[in-house]
Write a structure and sequence with these properties.
- The chain has 123 residues and is mainly alpha-helical.
């Protein structure tokens, strides 16, 4: 896990916020896994506005990150929906949280305990 971005309650993702997330991801990758960027980065995007905005396309071109398209409303699920969110949902299922901070803490804790090969196996 390189970056976990929790969207504050009541906010939504727009192109500006997504660009900042990509910047944070880029810096996190350089800091935590410096060799990773040498082989390039490939993101999976659907055609939502934050993913298709001109500023995002320019950002991706500047840093030479590639996109695997994933059409909106596609019958095929993104791998993260199947491989990541299923186990996470099972882990969180039935638990009660006093507040949002407790939930976020549990999600962070869950990610920190994943086997190093979890994401590689899912891809």
């Amino acid at each position: 896990m390189i970056l976990l971005d929790i969207l504050p309650k009541g906010e939504s993702v727009n192109a500006d916020r997504y660009c900042k997330i990509l910047d944070r991801l880029r810096h996190a990758v350089r800091r935590k896994r410096p060799g990773l960027l040498r082989s390039g980065v490939v993101l999976q995007h659907d055609n939502t506005t934050p993913h298709t905005a001109k500023s995002i396309k320019e950002w991706l071109e500047r840093y030479k990150w590639d996109i695997i398209p994933h059409p909106a409303h596609s019958l095929d699920l993104a791998p993260s929906y199947f491989y990541l969110f299923g186990p996470q949902k099972r882990h969180l299922g039935g638990k009660k949280f006093e507040d949002e901070d407790e939930l976020i803490g549990e999600v962070r804790d869950w990610f920190s305990k994943l086997d190093k090969n979890f994401f590689t196996q899912g891809i």
